[in-house]
Model the fold of this input.
Amino acid sequence: MTPATSSLLVRAARREEVERTPVWFMRQAGRSLPEYRALREGVPMLESCRTPELVTEITLQPVRRHGVDAAIFFSDIVVPLMAVGLDLDIVAGVGPVVAEPVRARADLDRLPELTAEQVPDIAESVRRVVAELGQTPLIGFAGAPFTLASYLVEGGPSKNHERTKALMHGDPELWHALCERLAQISLTFLRVQADHGASAVQLFDSWAGHLSRADYERYVAPHSRHVLAGMAQSHPDVPRIHFGVGTGELLVPMAEAGADVIGVDYRVSLADAVSRTGGRYAVQGNLDPALLFAPWPALERRVREIVEEGRRAPGHIFNLGHGVLPTTDPEVLTRVVELVHDASAR
Ligand code: CP3
Done:
C-alpha cells in the first residue's frame, strides 16, 4: 500500500475517521496562479495537456503554494476525445469547440474506442506527478458521458443544450450509442490514470443539472453507472467522486450511479445533501467560488459553517461548489486551506 492510499482524502472518501478535513479546489491549477500563466505563455491548452513536463509542473503548483490535501491531474475532459482523433480545440475564454459536431449515426465513426496505447503521455505524466507528490494523493478525472455528449452534439459550450436534448428525445437509439461510446472512452481514461498511481477519481458531469431527474435516470445514469461500476470492478481501492453543478435534484441518482462521494454545489447545504442521500455517502463541497471575493470575516464565517456541517456527514472533503474563478486572489485560497485545517482539527 502506497502512503497516498491512506491519505486524509482517501479515508474521508471511504467514510473513515480523519484527524482533520481534507481540502482541495476544483480548478486549483489554472489561471488564478501567476506561475501557471507564466508556464502556459504561448502554449495552446491542449498541447500543454499532452506535454508531461508541463502537466507535472502545473499539477504540482497549487500543492506547493496552497498546501492542499490532493492534487488534481492537469488535463481536460476533451483530452481523450482528441486522443481518439476528433478534431477539436479549447478556445481561451470559451471552452471546447468541436470542428464537426456529432449529430448522425455516421458521425459515430469519427469517435472510435479509446485504448491505453493512444495516451502514453497521460500514463507518463501521471507517473511523474505521483513520484513528485509523495504522500499527497492524486485525483484523476474524466468527463461523464452526458457532459461530453453536450460538447460533441452542440459543437461547443451551450446554455440550453437544445440540440443535445433534441437528440436524446428524438433518436434515443443514437443517443444511447453515443453515450455508450463516451462511457468506454471515459472509463479507459480513468483506468489509465488509476493504473499509473491516481489515488481517487472524479467523474465530472458538470452540466447534468440541466436535466430533469426522469431524463437523467433514463438517458444518462446507465452510462455514468457503466463508468463508475467499471472503476469499482478494476480499481476497488480507488474512491469515486461524482460531481455536477446545480444537481440538488439529482443527488440520489448520481450517488446511486456508483459513487463513494457526492459532489455538492453551493445551492444545496451539505446537511440537505446528506439527508437526501440517506447518510450513506461522503460529501464534497461546497463553498460558493464567488465568496472568495468577499471580505475575510464573511468568508471565514462561511468556511467555518461548512466545516461544521461537514462534521455531521459520514465523510467530508472540503471544496468549492464549482471551479476557482480565474480572477481569484490565490492568497485567499491559501488562507482558506489554513482555516479549514485549523477549524477542522479533531
Ligand atoms: O485544476 C483542475 O481542476 C484540473 C484541470 C481541469 C481543467 N479542466 C483544466 C482547464 C479540469 C478538472 C477540467 C475539467 C473540465 N473541462 C470540465 C469539468 C469541470 C468543470 O469546470 O465543470 C469542463 C466542463 C471542461 C471544459 C472546459 N475546458 C471549459 C469550460 C474550459 C474553460 C474555458 C475558459 O477559457 O474559460 C476549459 C479550458 C480549461 N481547462 C482551462 C483549464 C485550466 C482554462 C484554459 C487556460 O488556462 O487557458
Summary: The mean pLDDT is 97.
